[in-house]
Design goal:
With about 475 residues, the protein is an alpha/beta fold. It has 15 helices and 16 strands.
């Protein structure tokens, strides 16, 4: 049994080494970690239908993850993974152990990571999905974090989103990490609450084409903003944050800056609290964003965490008729917001919002048993390395400790743990309520693994230099 420990030595989760995958526990999706395949077999032997493999037309370009994996800079890695998985499945049928299969595994770091720099936050948002981990005092050793990023870059890391678990600009080494990544030609995205824009301004000059900063603002009015976010600093208002954007755009016009708006409707609840509704402010927020020279406003639905497994999910609080009325109101606001669009400003609707409106969100909850995207995208956090942004800090999604990539030996062990978790984490069970943006990519890869001859006709797409997953 492979044990993953916290920095204090506490056992966080145990992962079967899968010396023989026929020994994986299979009785129930409610087993710890959701592990197991039918009749003692690994998850990939469980039959699934083909309906969920169809390409969902609602995917916005930023969520076309299969298109990103087909770029010339990634398609070779994708093909290696598919061939290895196909060979392992054939080998399993002929008695191969998983340890034997690991000896031939592709040796890569993730293509893309979410990097949670800190658990510290200077806001007290009622709607925060990470409230239970904020301000814990758990932190990285800065130089070991840089060592991890260096080794990951050497093994194929192409993009990093500084986000989540706290406010990234509150990390004392924020600027050093940005420069360290840019020295290695890593594309960077930053998701910030906007309270420390001075930190962003200081590194704006080293960021370039394809890099972006997105501010979580969720309102058009100072009163709504402060009521929703409860910033510690009294001077932190929506006006004060927006007033700082033009100087950054003047310093670096290539840096894309977005205005993030999580749509909260009547009856939304999380953390045992009613959340402040902001639907009526969508159009006004778009006008404000354009006026202060943001490049776009991004609209997405409110998320909460499921009680049974702590996954981030869209909160459907009532029946379809009730939801339809809410979406009609939201659609009217969005259409008014789109009047602001021109060559310099866009209104972006997230895939989650599109599928919630048209009722196809259930198509995105039918997952294959194996989540293949965790080989290409992970979350690195002071709390550890996790297999998906939906499951940051969830024990059954833990791959390794916070410095799991700090040495070559650690990196190889983390790669092996990743491949073990692909076999042990049953996405069909764990993610059954998750409207998964990786759904199409996972089914596409699953189909290639089952039919590896298709690799011969697989063609590279255009090179977008967008490897954010």
């Amino acid at each position: 049994m492979q044990k993953i420990h916290s920095e204090s030595g506490e056992v966080l989760i145990s992962i079967s080494p899968l010396i023989d995958c026929r020994n994986i526990k299979t009785d129930s999706a409610d087993d710890a970690g959701g592990t197991g395949g039918a009749n003692g077999a690994p998850l990939h032997t469980r039959a699934r239908g083909d309906a969920a493999r169809e390409r969902q037309a609602e995917l916005s370009p930023i969520h076309d993850f299969m298109g990103k994996l087909l770029q010339p800079g990634a398609i070779g890695r994708l093909a290696e993974y598919v061939r290895w998985q196909a060979a392992w499945r054939e080998g399993y049928a002929n008695g191969m152990s998983f340890d034997e299969a690991l000896a031939t595994a592709p040796d890569y770091a993730p293509l893309s990571i979410n990097l949670d720099l800190t658990t510290a936050c200077n806001y007290r948002c009622d709607h925060c999905v990470d409230m239970d981990i904020l301000n814990t005092g758990i932190r990285y050793e800065h130089e070991r974090l840089k060592d991890s990023l260096t080794r990951m870059a050497d093994k194929g890391l192409r993009s990093v989103i500084l986000i989540g678990g706290g406010e990234p600009t509150a990390y004392p080494g924020f600027g050093d990490i940005v420069r360290h990544l840019k020295d290695r030609d890593i594309k960077i995205g930053v998701v910030t609450n906007g309270s420390l824009m001075k930190k962003v301004r200081e590194v704006a000059g080293v960021m370039g084409e394809g890099d972006w900063v997105r501010l979580s603002l969720d309102s058009a009015d100072n009163g709504t903003f402060r009521a929703m976010h409860k910033p510690v600093n009294a001077k932190c208002t929506l006006d004060w944050i927006c007033e700082q954007i033009p100087a950054i755009k003047d310093a670096n016009p290539a840096l894309q800056i977005g205005y993030s708006f999580i749509i909260v409707w009547r009856d939304c609840r999380t953390n045992n609290a009613d959340i402040i509704e902001n639907v009526a402010e969508i159009a006004a927020a778009a006008e404000r964003a354009k006026r202060w020279r943001f490049d776009y406003i991004s609209l997405k639905p409110f998320l909460t965490r499921a009680e049974e497994n702590n996954a981030e999910i869209v909160d459907l609080v009532r029946d379809e008729e009730h939801l339809g009325g809410i979406m009609k109101t939201i659609r009217g606001e969005i259409e008014r917001a789109k009047r602001q669009q021109d060559d310099s400003f866009k209104v972006i609707e997230s895939t989650n919002l599109r599928v919630l409106e048209n009722g196809s969100y259930k198509n995105y909850t039918e997952q294959p048993h194996n989540c293949h995207l965790q080989f290409f995208r992970q979350v690195v956090s002071p709390l550890g390395v996790f297999n998906c942004p939906v499951y940051r800090h969830v024990p059954q999604a833990l791959i390794g400790g916070k410095h799991a990539y700090a040495t070559d030996a650690d990196r190889r062990e983390t790669r092996d743990n990743t491949l073990r978790l692909i076999e042990a984490f049953d996405a069909a069970a764990e993610c059954r309520d998750v409207t998964c943006l990786y759904n199409h990519a996972n089914w596409f890869i699953e189909d290639l693994i089952r039919n590896p001859d298709k690799l011969g006709s697989l063609e590279a797409g255009e090179e977008r230099r967008d490897y954010f997953l």
